[in-house]
Write a structure and sequence with these properties.
The structure is a homodimer of 394-residue chains.
Chain A lengths: L27 E5 L14 H5 L9 H8 L3 E6 L33 H8 L5 E6 L5 H7 L2 E4 L19 E6 L2 H11 L11 E5 H6 L2 H17 L2 E5 L6 H27 L2 E3 H10 L4 H21 L4 E6 L12 H19 L5 E7 L5 E7 L5 H14 L4
Parallel strand pairs in A: 1-2, 1-3, 6-7, 6-9
Antiparallel strand pairs in A: 3-5, 4-5, 4-10, 9-11, 10-11
């Protein structure tokens, strides 16, 4: 297989046949290089992580479930260093190509997984989403992606970043494949009544550009038509930036806890922007975290109030299409800041979110997102499928 | 030439014959890889610096003077990334070997230059010293080294770090070679009466360990014998840490100015400790700098008062021998902090300082330093030679 998009990790070509039979028989998948595969080093997108870790002794349960269900693992994929990024930039192994917009970043941190799915090199791919790492590359590369309810897929055997946010997610170009993979990966207990009401998140749409608003409008219209009712609503009583700041503080704190000892021991090489995030993370205090957790509780209560059973929220996945690859870091930081103001809405409080790919007037991929109540993952995937079948948005 | 100590930059072997005749005829030297040599890329100890810079069009005047004086350039040497370090650690190209203590760091940032001189691969080597980058590796590797008076050797054609501190310095194992190189490199105008009085810097000795105090005592004794008088003195009326903090603030500020645009454009890979210094440097404010410059002025006035014509100060070059190579970064930071409390004394205010190598009871190299008045560089080198000839301290 030729890796035209620099999405796969090179040097350790992993190929594992799935079980002879199962619900995913015939499908080929890739896994972000933070998932353990027994006998192989989990590289985490950083050469010093790879150098200082031995081969995994067990395969991550998420990968194993897919193999047991008949899917074939075709390789591991490039990730932002230790999942610390949402633009898909990797200074060590190269930034994977965004097949739909080659002069733009693919989004990350599950960059390689999105890239190889968008290029059609595999049927689906595993990623992880802490602060947007599945949703952003799905939007930028124009594919389906889900960040499931926090806790519904075991995190065992993956490189942990911020455990109270980390989730295992996946990408596909086909909505039906998204659903089939969900039946295998998601733990039981995801019950949700069918959606009957749409909430259009006004404050989230206000953050997105006109091009994105125009591009997602037809899907929102179709969704309204499929449901009994809808309303416009400001999700955050104050300002989405307040929710984002709180999430950022807690995520930094947890990421620091996950990696500080290794960093102190190894003095690893990072690209400057990744190192900068770790340095700033090391300055977060316990007091900062306490204050942020209070905001996060309010955020959670508000989202539970909005998401009565049968409710689904529509919002743009990202405020804009993917930025150009060659921006300055200071420009990239501004882009990132705007994006996480949207991804924090579900990410900070463990809610499931799916991306439905659409295209702007300029031909660039972006996405409409749906956020459902906790445990409504299957319903979200099914509703996304209905929307796709109801119209052609691509 | 076999590089047994990983001191030379590999991949671009530079060899330039010196002029047919001159005061340095027959001597071979190396230059830290921050000095431009026409036709070659100046690598600066960082692969992304090398990748984003073309070959130099002119040779740095300091290198050219040596070639014109008959010395042969045998190669460029490894440096801490962009001279940002004093321990000699380079995560990209490897930390050069300390030939006198192979399980310990060589000191830096002029690490490779000190390493190849100590191993005897060249007769002398060029380094640079902003906050200790010649003096520290000279002490750790047990060789002679000088940080000259600020401004006496042109900085043109070298990678600038903090211009109000940067100096060009050099290393040799032979005190006579130190003097000969000085006659070629130092601008005219370095006049100083012969030294007549020794000041023993009590507060500096108090920071050094007992092993260092014991090791340098015989040289101090000999110096007392060669001069008319001596006294014990606290250099800093308050605390050397105050001088060090002020120097650190201004140096960070200047280093940020030197590299911020390139970092923003390139997003380079750094080892974590180097990135951390740049990140913290970016948080220094103009107000911080103003306050620090006031302390620096007081520091300068005090040193001028102590260094009446004919006065020379004795102090330990480093508080301890080189630390082990495998320490944690948090431990390395503590070591660094202690070291710069000594190196800031001359470094913050542009004074010349030479290192005279001695050995601890454990057989580890350390150094006694002499600081003289501005422009007393030749006198310092000559006095160091007299001390060496008066006794065997090795």
């Amino acid at each position: 297989m030729t890796d035209r998009v620099n999405g796969f990790v090179s040097g350790d070509a992993i190929q594992m046949e799935g079980a002879a039979d199962g619900p995913l028989k015939g499908l080929r998948f890739a896994a972000k290089d933070i998932f353990d595969v027994a006998g192989h080093v989990t590289g985490g997108g950083n050469p010093d992580w790879a150098r200082t870790h031995g081969p995994a002794t067990e395969t991550a349960p998420a990968v194993q479930r897919l193999l047991d269900a008949g899917a074939t693992l075709a390789g591991k994929t490039i990730t932002d260093e230790l999942t610390r990024g949402i633009l898909g930039i990797n200074a060590h192994y190269g930034t994977p190509v965004n097949p739909r917009a080659p002069d733009r970043v693919p989004g990350g941190s599950s960059s390689g997984s999105a890239s190889v799915v968008a290029e059609g090199l595999v049927d689906f791919a595993l990623g992880s989403d802490t602060g947007g790492s599945v949703r952003v590359p799905a939007s930028f590369c124009g594919i389906h992606g889900i960040r499931p309810t926090h806790g519904r897929i075991p995190l065992k055997g993956i490189i942990e970043q911020a455990p109270s946010f980390d989730t295992v997610g996946w990408f596909a170009t086909d909505a039906g494949v998204m659903e089939r993979v969900g039946t295998v990966l998601l733990d039981r207990g995801g019950a949700s009544p069918p959606f009957s009401k749409l909430v259009v998140a006004e404050d989230a749409f206000a953050i997105a550009g006109t091009d994105v608003n125009v591009a997602v409008a037809p899907v929102v219209g179709t969704a309204k038509g499929l449901l009994n009712g809808w309303e416009n609503l400001h999700l955050c009583p104050t300002d989405l930036a307040a929710w984002q700041n709180a999430m950022f503080t807690v995520q930094q704190w947890e990421a620091h806890r996950s990696f500080a000892d290794w960093i102190d021991r190894i003095n690893p090489r990072f690209s400057y922007d990744v190192a900068q995030r770790f340095v700033m993370a090391s300055t977060v205090t316990g007091e900062d975290v306490k204050a942020a957790e209070r905001v996060r509780q309010g955020h959670q209560q508000r989202m539970e109030a909005v998401l009565a059973p049968g409710t689904v929220i529509a919002l743009p996945t990202t405020p804009a299409p993917a930025p150009l690859r060659n921006l300055r870091q200071s420009q990239m930081r501004e882009v990132r800041q705007r994006i996480v103001t949207l991804t924090c809405i579900a990410g900070a409080v463990g809610l499931p979110q799916v991306n439905i790919p659409v295209t702007t007037a300029d031909g660039l991929p972006v996405g409409l997102s749906l956020i459902g109540p906790r445990g409504s993952d299957e319903m979200l995937l099914s509703f996304a499928g209905s929307l796709i079948r109801s119209a052609d948005f691509r």
